[in-house]
Amino acid sequence: MAYSTKSKKSSKTYYLHSKNVTLKGGHKQTIYYFASKAGSNAVNALPAGYTVVENDRTGLPILKKKR
C-alpha cells in the first residue's frame, strides 16, 4: 500500500512517489513527489529522516528533511 496523506485544506488524498534522475553533471539523485493517484513509482513508507508538511496557501503536501 502506498504511503498517503490527506490535505487539511482540500481534504484530498495524495500518494508519495519516488524517481531516480540523472542531473546535468551526471550525478544520480532520488526525487520524491506527491500525486493524487498512486502510480507505479509509489513508495510504501516515508524515507528515513523526512517528514510531511503542508503548504499553507495551496494545501499541497511537501516532503521535508527533519532537523
Characterise this structure.
This protein is mainly beta and 67 residues long. It has one domain. The protein is 0% helix and 46% strand. The protein contains no helices and five strands. The termini are far apart.
Brief digest:
The protein is mainly β. The chain has strands at 4-6, 13-22, 28-35, 50-54, 61-65. It has a three-stranded antiparallel sheet, with no helix packed on it. Strands 4-5 form a two-stranded antiparallel sheet.
What is the strand and helix layout of this fold?
Elements: E1 4-6, E2 13-22, E3 28-35, E4 50-54, E5 61-65
Q: What's the helix-strand series? A: EEEEE
Give the structural class.
mainly beta
Amino-to-carboxy terminus distance: 28 Å
Count of the separate structural domains:
1
Determine the mean pLDDT.
Answer: 95
Please report the total strand number as a whole number: 5
The outline comes out as: globular
